[in-house]
Specification:
single chain; Flavocytochrome C3, Chain A, domain 1; 493 residues; elongated; 2 domains; 27% helix; alpha+beta
């Protein structure tokens, strides 16, 4: 046995259940285990104030399905050809109906989203009528639901160890049971004993470029609009003790966003939001200087229809948004409204009203003609000129014969002209260690790794299509299942 894996003789911290990661899933696991009498500790990688992961900056909606049978039908249809075991679908469906009751029993005040549309992402699929989206607080967004989750943990005697990332699981060499976690704290390694079990709830691999390149389909890189602390640590920890992985190629993305080196998360560009008032008509081109999509198509969390199937939006990198001075001078090109997104809520980047500061920083490039602009960003001038001419013709005839765009058919005609490099961006990954219906992490042969559980987007159930609010809904559902089962383990040693 190597020193690194050796079971320590003394432990720095002890609890019955050790929860790794404090987002929605960590909250649900920790509170559930605590309510069952277990002593719980949470390890959190971020400093205090930046905990909460993607949950903190999400749209704050969570799914509460209205019927088990419809939920089974809908999730089965969402999985399509990427099937998930029936037993998992059933458990998901049964538990997702209980989210509101559980939160209300703890003092939450579930509110159904009011604004139309209700937000059924795939209304034509069987069982779609089960979709009901809720939030806590006056409206969705603005971290309101997260504030409830945070309060539910903080009003209980559940210590949260901030800036203490879990680094490795401590496993009994013979029985393969998980006995605790090696974590990092203040430059030192500490050992955290889990007398009953460990629950991994440390999110996805949104900010791990190596994993993105290896696991996500067709993109060389991708940036997150969520927590930069989600670096796939749970995947590495679980694989090291023998876990299988699932759904690694599925993610809530891509969209197209600006990413700059100074800031760890992406900028959602206003130009992608349809506006009757905005006179602009930005187009996006790939490295060949050609458009490749209807820029205004409302993807289903990054997926677009292709030949009767849904595939991730094609994002040939590097991509460039091309716009003219009419669009540029119409207002800020970045959507800085602080309802959701890490850049908006945590970084709080204050984009200039007239885009001048970002132009000065070189985030936006400018030239007097389309050919000169092409030269500035390394595109072929003749091709870009032709692309813009075709687009302007489509605007004149109100018919985009290439991609069928119908929104904001406004020409790119009034110089000077501007280009912004865009990158693939995402909300969250779905893949991670495979779990079973008891929220145990399993090996490739399906057998559970003793005393090891998971919940949330670290190995979520979503294998293909995704229904908005399904992630936080699943965090609550499998958070409760994992907390219950970890708390019920017999104490070892
Ligand atoms: C902008 C945006 C909008 C979204 N809107 C919605 C929505 O409205 N509804 C919905 O259902 N989903 C939404 N999603 C997706 C959803 O937010 C996430 O899938 C969900 O919140 C994940 O919860 P989680 O608890 O699994 O992980 P997270 O909430 O990401 O929490 C993981 C935690 O683990 C910590 N951590 C990471 N590594 C370690 C480590 N090694 N040790 C200890 N701690 C660690 C992180 O710091 C973080 O605090 C959105 C996502 C984004 C980015």
């Amino acid at each position: 046995m190597s020193q690194q894996n050796a079971v320590p003789e003394t432990w720095d911290v002890e609890a019955d259940v050790v929860v790794v990661g404090f987002g929605a899933a960590g909250m649900a696991a920790a509170v559930t285990a605590h309510e069952l009498g277990a002593k719980v500790v949470i390890l959190e990688k971020a400093p205090e104030g930046e905990e909460g992961g993607n949950t903190r900056v999400a749209g704050q909606g969570y799914l509460n399905t209205s019927s088990v049978d419809s939920a089974i039908a809908y999730l089965t249809a969402l999985c399509g050809p990427f099937t998930v075991p029936e037993v998992m679908v059933r458990v998901w469906a049964e538990e997702m109906c209980l989210n509101n009751d559980w939160l209300a029993s703890l003092g939450g005040d579930p509110q159904e989203h009011q604004h139309p549309p209700v937000g059924i992402e795939f209304p034509d699929l069987p069982g779609a009528d089960c979709v009901h989206k809720f939030h806590d607080g006056p409206t969705y967004g603005y971290s309101y639901t997260w504030k409830l989750f945070e309060r539910l943990v903080k009003e209980r005697p559940i210590p949260i160890l901030y800036e203490t990332p879990g680094r490795a699981l401590i496993q009994n060499d013979v029985t393969k049971e998980i006995l605790g976690v090696r974590a990092q704290q203040g430059g030192k390694t500490i050992t955290v004993k889990a007398r009953r079990g460990v629950v991994l709830t440390c999110g996805g691999f949104e900010n791990n470029q190596e994993m993105i390149r290896n696991y996500l389909p067709g993109i060389p890189y991708c940036y997150t609009s969520g927590s930069p602390y989600n670096e796939g640590d749970g995947i590495t920890m679980a694989m090291t003790v023998g876990a299988d992985l699932w759904h690694m190629n599925n993610y809530a993305g891509p969209s197209m966003a600006l990413k700059v080196p100074e800031i760890p998360t992406s900028f959602s560009m206003q130009a992608f939001h349809y506006s009757k008032e905005l006179p602009g008509g930005a187009i996006v081109v790939g490295p060949d200087g050609r458009r490749f999509a209807d820029e205004k198509f409302k993807t289903r969390h990054g997926k677009v229809p292709v030949n009767g199937r849904w595939l991730p939006l094609s994002t040939p990198c590097p991509m460039f948004m091309i716009l003219d001075h009419t669009h540029f001078s119409a207002g800020p090109l970045y959507d800085k409204h602080p309802s959701h997104g890490w850049t908006q809520i945590v970084v709080k980047y204050d984009w200039s009203e007239d885009n001048s500061a970002e132009l000065a920083k070189g985030w936006i490039r400018k030239a007097d003609s389309i050919e000169a602009l092409a030269g500035v960003v390394g595109l072929d001038p003749a091709t870009l000129k032709d692309t813009v001419a075709r687009w302007n013709q489509a605007c004149a005839t109100k018919h985009d014969e290439q991609f069928g765009r119908t929104l904001m058919l406004n020409p790119v005609a009034n110089g000077p002209f501007y280009a912004i490099e865009l990158s693939p961006s995402m909300l969250n990954t779905q893949g991670g260690p495979r779990r079973n219906e008891r929220a145990q992490i399993v090996r490739p042969d399906g057998s559970p790794i003793p005393r090891l559980y998971s919940a949330g987007e670290l190995g979520s159930i979503y294998s293909y299509l995704y229904q908005g609010t399904g992630n936080i809904g699943e965090c609550l559902a499998f958070g409760r299942i994992s907390g219950r089962n970890a708390a019920a383990e017999a104490v070892w040693g």
